[in-house]
Amino acid sequence: MEFPVLGIGWMEMVVIAAVGLLVVGPEKLPEVVRGVAKVYHGLRRAFTEAQSTVKTEMALLERELNQSVEPEKTGPPRQSPTDRRKDAADEGDPTRPPV
Q: Deepest in the core among 20, 52, 72, 91, taking most CB within 10 A?
């Protein structure tokens, strides 16, 4: 069993709990664990909120950029060589041999 959020296994958790029990003592250990959990959840919430804000702002900037950039109008659309040959044949191009 692993704790995916922390990236550690159950043996590491047992070692951390044993060290915490020795350092803090059995009376204060639950209180310390609650405090650490509150700090962890607060940091995680702040990170998620910051990430959401950045994504929202990037989407708004991208939308504004896409709306402000218009295609450059330099003339009629370009034709492919095949289309040009068809147009020339339709117009009766004198340089083209009769079919």
A: 20
